[in-house]
């Protein structure tokens, strides 16, 4: 009787330890996964912002080039007259 009680007690301790290990492993992998997701999301947002800034710079350069061309055309017309 005593050995059976001791055996079940050891078995339940083993189950508790196993559950604790599983929980700790899940917390580690789950927590790391969340951090990784947020890091990836931040990286994607930064890339999108950089692309938007580059597009804005390109648009500004195109507008400046168009203005310069218009000024050159106006000056040529004035000189021709």
TrEMBL record:
Keywords, alphabetical: Membrane, Transmembrane, Transmembrane helix
Transmembrane domains' residue ranges: 38-71
Region (Disordered) location: 1-33
Bias type Basic and acidic residues, positions: 23-33
Record protein name field: Uncharacterized protein
Species this protein is from: Liparis tanakae
């Amino acid at each position: 009787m005593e050995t059976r009680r001791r055996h079940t007690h050891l078995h339940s301790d083993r189950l508790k330890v196993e559950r604790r290990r599983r929980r700790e492993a899940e917390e580690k992998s789950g927590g790391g996964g969340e951090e990784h997701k947020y890091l990836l999301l931040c990286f994607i947002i930064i890339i999108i912002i950089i692309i938007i800034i580059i597009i804005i710079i390109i648009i500004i350069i195109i507008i400046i080039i168009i203005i310069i061309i218009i000024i050159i055309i106006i000056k040529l017309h004035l000189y021709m007259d």
